[in-house]
Structures are given as C-alpha cells and as structure tokens.
Amino acid sequence: MRGLPVRYLPWMARDVARGPGVGMLVVGAMSAYLASGMTIVSDGRIAGPGTEVLLTVTDFAATVFVLLATAGMVSADFAGGWYRALFARPLSAPAYYFQRWLVGGLAVLIATAAVALTAAARVGAEVPIAALVGGTALGYLLLGGLVFLLSTFTRYDWLVAVVLFAAHGALGVARSFGFGLGAVARTLYAVLPPFHLVGLDQPLPSGAHLLHAAGYGIALVLGALLVLRRRPLARGARE
Amino acid sequence: MIEIAHLSKTYRSLLGGRSVPALDDLTLAIQPGEVVGVAGPNGAGKSTLISLLLGFLAPTAGTVRLAGHTPRAYVERRGAAYLPELMALPPRWTVDAALRRHAVLAGVPAAAVPARVDRMVEWLGLEEHRRKQVRQLSKGTLQRLGLAQALVGDSDLVVLDEPTHGLDPVWTQRFRDVVRELRRPERCIVMASHNLDELERLADRVAILHQGRLERVVHAGAADTGEASCVYRLAATRAAEAVARLFPGASLVEGRDNEWRVVGRLPELNRALAELIALGAVVASFAPESSRLEAEFRAAVGER
pTM here? Predict the structure, then answer.
C-alpha cells in the first residue's frame, strides 16, 4: 500500500476548511456565545457550576464538529462517481481517506479549542487544555471512527451514527435510573461504542476505561481501512 | 503489458438471489505500444472490462495482470490515465484546480505542475474555461476536462471509455490527433467506443464483445491492405452495361439509376474501375458502403 498522499494535504485542508469548516464556524460561534452567556459571573468571579456549563456546551459543539468533519467523507466521493478519476491515480484508497480523516480530526481539535478558549476568555474562566485536547481527540477517535466506518457503506453515515449515539445515550440514562434492561438492550449497550466514557464535561478516562474507549475507536478506524482495502471500489461497471 | 486470462465477471445481488453475467471467459493480451479498441453493443461488457482493468472491480473468475501486477497494485504504484464514460468531478472545483489537484495526485513534480497544467489547458482548448467551475461546463467541455485530467500525469496505461462522447465534430477530429500523439512504444492505449469509424482510424486491433463474450479481434488496418472482400458503392454515368460486365455481382441501388453496390477485394475493384473509366464512364464516387470493422461487428453481434 502506498503511503499517505502528503503532497495533496494542502488541497485536503482547503476542502475541509471550505466545506465542514463553514458549518464549524457557525456552530462554534453560537456555542462560544451560548457557553459564555450561560456562565454566571458575579463580582468578576465565576459563580456556580461555571466551567462545567462551559465544558458541557463545548462538548455538545465538539460532537457536532465531529459529525460535520466526517459526514460523507468516503460515501460522497463514491456517490458522486468522483472516485473513478481519483483512484486511477497512483494512490491507495485507505491511505487517502485516512489522511482525510486525520485532517478532519485536526479541524475538530482546532474548532473545539477555539470555542472553549473564546468562551473562557469572555468570562475569565480557566479551561484545562490538556484534558480538553485529550477528550476531544478521544471523542473524535470514537465518533469520528464510527462515521468513517459507516461512510464506507452508506451515504447516511452521520445519520446512522447519530441514531447509534442517541440509542447508547438513552440506554445509559435508563440504566442509571435503575430501569431493568432486557437482554437485547444490555447487549446493545455493551456492543455500541462506549460514548459514556468520553466527554469534555467529565475527567479523561484512565486505565481499563481508556483502553476500552481508545481500543474501540482504533478498531473502528482499522475496520474502515480494511473495508477500503479489501472491498472492490466499484459496485458495477459504472457505479 | 496487459494479460487477461479467462476473465469472467458476474454481478450478484446482495443476497445472491439474482446474478447477471457481464463478462464470460475473456482472454486477450495487449502489448506495449498498441492501441486496442473495445467495441460492442450496449451491455456487451465494455465498461465492466475497463473497471476490471483498473482494479475497480474484482473478477468472478480468471485474472488480469498489468506488467505482472494485479490491476489495483499496478494502478496504486504507477497510476493510469483514465477517462471514465461518465466523467465526474466535484462540481465546485474549477477547471484549473481540478487539473492541478490531479497533477499532484499523479505525482507530477511540484515545480512542473504549472507547466503541465498549462500544456493540458492549451492542448485541449480549455483556456477560456480555466476559471469556471465544473458545474458550469457543457458536456463537451467536461469531456475535454476529463481527457485533460487523465493525461496530466504521464502514465504508460491509457484507458479511455467512450472518449468522444459529447464532443462536437471539430473536437472529435482533434481527439484523433491527441490519441495519435499519445502513441509511445512503452504505452498501452485501451479505448472503448461505440464509434466504429473512430476505432478503425485509431486502433491497431479492435476486440468485439457481445453479451460478455469476446467474439473476435479485428486488425483494424486490414481493410486498407485490400486483403478483405468489401462492399463498395459506385456512382457513375454512362456506365450501365460496363458495370454489369466489369463488376460481377454488382446490383443497382434501389431508387438510384446510376448507383451500384459492388463487392470484391480492393485491387480487383481498382482494376475494374480503371477499365470502366477507360471505357468512357464518368465516376462520381466510389466509397466503401460499410467498413470492414463494421461488417465484422455486424457479423459478431448477429446482425446482417
């Protein structure tokens, strides 16, 4: 397999900036405004759960950023038929899309940090940068990895990911309230990506939880690369 | 360079319930320096063959080897100049950006990219469209851009699927010059087309497919050598009696008083023609009614 198409990196970055980047800018600006607006400042000091509110809003924004950065990442090229001219080049599909996924991740990191730091600067709060970067990266690995894998199969990659994300959240809430889950629901909760371990409004997971979350995310990305490597690029003579 | 052995491809539905055979036991070898045409009616398997050649599809049976490699391994290593039948590029890309992107992906050295792009723009007459977005292009211009993106690299494998589709007559003619310029001793050019005249002019050999099978391979230049017996149309005045005598089997074209259909090998027909003129006939035209390739094509697909 050929290596990453590094010389194409500026074009890829430009595509992300002009595509998902526009949505990120809008969502980011709204989130920063919302986060700073919801943080109560009294006598120049943050009152109540100020930083937590800020991080909760940032966490929501980061989730949207991940979806924006990865939606249709692979599937759009195939649906549009652009892949034919693209992969007639001396270029490997897994390497190309892995690089694209990394560029998306970088965009998510920058956008998330920008939201948190802008909101924090407005209210004079302090944001734990290392935890913010680590949490965002782990979240991207998990949710971004899921969309990447789904994108090799369907155009509705982001929608399916949202449904799975919501299903996992709902099952988690039901579980925390002590509702008895059936065998199917318990299995589903166990096999879905462990989104509950990752969040900017909670401490970075460690130990077995970190291994579980990171391992799951890496498996999703490797799965996507394996599908791109093993499955024929075309479905038919012209598709 | 290209070795295709017992290649078959059957499309199967996801659950395996329905299967559609597209190619059946195709064997063909293409040498470096050759231009090979692929002809066949709709659904004959031309586009499937091209997808298999580039490794976009996996064969159901048989093998394809490009310089000893699997198609995907070859293309990932060396790339191919490929013009798809339905040219598709992201609609917001400009012509200039599309060519620069493809030049980078094709491995053109950074310093050479501007010159290579300029050359393609000039060669394919895209100067006035350079700043336009792909979505603003007409079908013919998009086809020329498709050809430009294919050729912006420097590949030894050129695969063109219906290359003159959507081109106007001027650019169809120019395209022929482009293909002639592309010929190189180390380069294989494979061209699928419905246009038999185009294939006859450009290809060394034409593989005729029908219902997924390779029916025959025609050496496209053979008609010019006069080896084959062909049907010609002869239009001449003051020639009625002489034509019947000099061209055995000549028959009058329906509704025309001075036009005949004559059959024979070119040298014999030339001799008869010279005699006809010597007898005082005025020959208005003498042209093949159909090319040898067309005759072979009709025979291969079962049409008369």
Answer: 0.86
